Amino acid sequence: MIDLRSDTVTRPTPAMREAMYRAEVGDDVIDVDPTLDKLQRRIAELLGKESAIFMPSGTMTNQIALRVHCKPGDEFLCDSDCHIYNYEQGAFAQLSGLVAKTIAGQQGVLGLTDVLGSVRPLNEHMVQTRLLCLENTHNRGSGKVQPQAQVEQICQWAHQSGLKTHLDGARLFNASVASGLSLKELSDPFDSVSVCLSKGLGVPLGSCLVGTKEFVAQARRARKLFGGGMRQVGIIAAAGLYALDHHIERLALDHEHAKRLASAVRPFEFLKVMGSEPETNILIFHVSQAWGTAQQYASALDENGVQAMAFSASAIRMVTHLDVSSEQIEQVCKVIERIGNNPKH
Ligand SMILES: *Cc1c(COP(=O)(O)O)cnc(C)c1O
Could you say which DSSP state residue 127 is in? Predict the structure, then answer.
């Protein structure tokens, strides 16, 4: 099976496992795990923030960022397709008493005109708007890289309006490789940034949240509250350090692979690629009703040895990653060509 369901399916390479085996560890709840400390410092430096904290998932880093920036009864702004709103069980409401105001974007991109007027006036009838959240790259936006000039403009507006800004940078490494902008440049407009090590970098699990020292100290308290305090976590941090050294530049290959897949999809009248072309490692395409449902299309792929996700009733998502070779991508292209004009498979 060629697994394109997500870039989270990657398994640690032998060299990564070797680094994990050799990791120096300590109890990071009682005091500090030396390998994790190294990873956190490195991430903070890469993203240009004072401090970083590691957590078991990107859901936790996002939700703790929201919790620290806001108080119960506060509202945050986000695009209506974002992960924080759609894929985290409304944890901001369940765990932190927050309200989301979703704003329709274009492939997950919000412009200044979309958000103008969305900060509520101070008024005792209303929730208070506290925070703006963006996502880069945008998952449901087919891995789109946020246009940086627009990000800077909208974050400047947010700060002038008294809001904090948080970036869900689950795939910020992909955004950096695709845009040529540094992680620091991409993070500068934001008060806090979450990055996943478990996605394109191929680490078994984990995400980091960065911000000021004060912000991270509060996030550390919240992490313990949410049950995310971990002990000899240097075993995982060693995989993270290994990935920072060896798995960033190669993301460009994943991006090429996604473009190659798009080129196989494009000729078929029943299929329509989102956007003009994938910018990073996520390809989303729509399957027309005349062909069948996305679920039927995914089943047809499956019967031909390819796993992809039916992302909605009519959309298929394919994610390229470390564990898929160029030869396998060519095999997937052949499968797409085989089933492409075969409606109601
Ligand atoms: C994967 C992902 C997350 C975090 O997911 P976890 O499975 O909780 O680590 C957050 N945001 C985006 C955009 C993602 O793709």
Answer: P
